[in-house]
Amino acid sequence: MVVRHDGKRVGTSTARAVRDDGRYEVDFREIRSANTAEGDTFKVTIKRVGTSTKVTRTLRFAS
To answer: Domain locations in the chain?
Structure first.
């Protein structure tokens, strides 16, 4: 997975997805980034190992 904060890559990791309520979840709490003065936008891109399948989710937090 790749985690971006306001467009800048802040971390990459390989993690195991866990099935929860019929969908898969990945924990990326270990990846840290400094808080900025304005609102924060995180994009998490998850790619299944050995395939080209990707999913990207955007998380926005107001200041």
So the answer is: 2-61
In which residue are the tokens 């709490």 written?
29
Lowest mean pLDDT, pick from 32-36, 44-48, 55-59: 32-36
**Whole-angstrom distance, CA of residue 63 vs CA of residue 26:** 25
Q: How far is CA 42 from CA 11, 19, 60, in A?
A: 11, 22, 6
**Residue 49's closest CA among 20, 4, 13, 25?**
13
Q: pLDDT tens digits, residue range 4-20?
A: 998 999 989 888 888 88
Amino acid 58: pLDDT: 92
